[in-house]
Amino acid sequence: MSESLSLTPIAFVRAAKALKFDTPHQPVDGAQEQSKIEFVKGHNYEHALHSLAGFDRIWLIWWFHRNSTWRPMVLPPRGKAVKRGVFATRSPHRPNPLGITAVRLLAVERSSLIVGNCDLLDGTPILDIKPYLSTVDAFPDSSLGWLAEVEATKNENKFAVMVSPVARAQLDWLKNEHQIDLETRSIEILSHDPTPHRTRRIVRMNEQEFRLGCGAWRIFFTITCTDSTNESQPKNLVLLQRVAPGYPDDMLNAGTNPRVPYQTAQLEFLTRWPRDNALI
């Protein structure tokens, strides 16, 4: 048997998410979002879609096209900062970077599919599609292993997240002027656990301040833990202090660079909030 296999994408994802920070670790079922699966032309894939309409969900088998290496031990973004064997995780750093995702099937078109919220980036190659069968694909009583503790507390917001006036102006400007929403995802991450964590891209800057990597952006925040018994005063508070571009000035000012996402937005941001004024 050959030790190598040849795989060819049958389709590609067309989605609004362009950066890893934009994607949840699993699809958020209640989110009002749509993506398109566009099939490669010239292979009669439109005939392969026959009878797919009517299924509520489908499996997407896809390729982690942004990854080129793998690790036998990985640090999952959820839970304690403990390394796990890659086969005990959904990490993208796999020997063969294959991913699987169950998504809602909203519509079957001639050479494309419209699906609900997913955790795939724009341009992700799709290798295969299968119908989701609730009678054989769902095992709700199965043990979750090391993730059981994480799942038991995943809906608990251990930290209240507040936004400073400066950060509020910056976040609103990014959303209103450039349709960049950093607030939703950052609150999701920080309300559960804002402590330093490499995979969550949280680092301590100094004794008081921390930084969250948000794709092309950085959010600086502080953490306050008190023993207050006042119910109106949160015991654990994360305060978003300010936002900053994640790329250095020399890259932003070196002409149009397709490797720098949101380059125009970052340059415009710096005209409003220069780095010196932001104390970065």
Description:
This protein is of the alpha+beta class. It has 2 domains: 139 residues, YaeB-like (Elongation Factor Tu (Ef-tu), domain 3, Beta Barrel); 119 residues, 2-Layer Sandwich (YaeB-like fold), CATH 3.30.2310. Helices cover 20% and strands 26% of the residues. The protein has 8 helices and 13 strands. It has a 6-stranded antiparallel β-barrel with strand order 1-2-7-6-3-8. A 5-stranded mixed sheet has the order 9-13-12-11-10. The longest helix is centred in the middle third of the chain and has 14 residues. The termini are far apart. The mean pLDDT is 87.
Instruction: Please state how the strands of the largest beta sheet are arranged side by side.
Output: 1-2-7-6-3-8
Please report the total strand number as a whole number: 13
Question: What number is the mean pLDDT?
Answer: 87
Determine Rg (CA atoms, Å).
Answer: 21 Å
Please name the CATH topology of the largest domain.
Elongation Factor Tu (Ef-tu), domain 3
Secondary-structure class:
alpha+beta
Strand content: 25-35%
> How would a textbook summarize the main sheet?
6 strands, antiparallel, barrel
Unreliable spans are none
Helix-strand string: EEHEEEEEEHHEHHEEEEHHH
Distance between the termini: 56 Å
Using the alpha-carbon principal axes, give the shape.
globular
Give helix % range: 10-25%
**Helix count from the secondary structure assignment:** 8
The CATH class of the largest domain, by name, is Mainly Beta
Total domain count: 2
Identify the CATH homologous superfamily of the largest domain: YaeB-like
Q: Based on the structure given, which CATH architecture of the largest domain is correct? A: Beta Barrel
